[in-house]
Amino acid sequence: DTEVTQTPKHLVMGMTNKKSLKCEQHMGHRAMYWYKQKAKKPPELMFVYSYEKLSINESVPSRFSPECPNSSLLNLHLHALQPEDSALYLCASSQDGQGHQPQHFGDGTRLSIL
Amino acid sequence: QKEVEQNSGPLSVPEGAIASLNCTYSDRVSQSFFWYRQYSGKSPELIMSIYSNGDKEDGRFTAQLNKASQYVSLLIRDSQPSDSATYLCAVSSTGNQFYFGTGTSLTVIP
User: Fold this and answer.
1) Strands B19-25 and A87-94: what pairing?
2) Does B31 contact A101 at a Cβ distance shorter than 8 Å?
3) d(CA A41, CA A53)
4) What is the distance between the alpha carbons of residues A6 and A74, in angstroms, rounded to a whole number?
5) B43, A2: Cβ pair inside 8 Å?
6) Predicted confidence (pLDDT) per residue in A38-95, tens digit
7) Does A57 reach chain B within 8 Å, measured CB to CB?
8) Which end of chain A has less neighbouring CB within 10 Å, N or C?
C-alpha cells in the first residue's frame, strides 16, 4: 500500500464516456503529478500542480483535463478518449515543487478504452 | 532535450551476486537523482535518493553519483529473486520535473 491513493484501480470506458480519475495524499506534499505509462515504457509526464496551481502541461490533448480542488486532491477528467489512451495512469506527489525531493507514486489506475 | 539513458537489458544475475545498474544524464545542472523499482503491472517504488557525489548505502542497495561524469549507478548486493523488476533512473534539475530513463530490466536467477 502507498500513501498516495488512486481510484478507481481499473476503469473501462467507451470513447463517448466521461469519467474522472482521483488521487489523494495526506502527507502535506505541495506538488502533485499525473503520468501516463504504456507497457515497457517509462512514465510520461502529463501535468504538474505546484501549490495547487498548474505549473506544467506537457502538451496533453484537451480530452484530458486536470483539476486540483485542494492541496490533498488531484483529479483527471476524461472525455472522448481514444483507444491509444489505454494505459496505466499514475499520480505522484512530492514534498516541494522544486524537484529536490522524490516523488511518491500511487498504485495507478489501469484504463482501457473500448 | 534533457536525456537520461539506461541500458534496457535484460540484465540477468545469479542469486547472491551483485547487480550493477547504470544511468547517464545530459543536463549538467541536474541536482537530484533517484532510483525507482517497478514490478510488472505495479507502480514505481522509490529505492534511493542521492544528491551529492560519492556513495550512499541503504541495506543491500548502494547508489553512486559522479556529477563530473554525469553518471549515477545502483548496486544491489546479495541479489534475491524478489529483486527481479525494472529499475528506473530519474533525474531532476531546475523546476519540478523529473526525467526518467527507459529503465533496466533485472532478472535474478535462483
Assistant:
1) unpaired
2) no
3) 28
4) 9
5) yes
6) 999 999 999 999 999 998 888 899 999 999 999 999 999 999 999 999 999 999 999 9
7) no
8) N
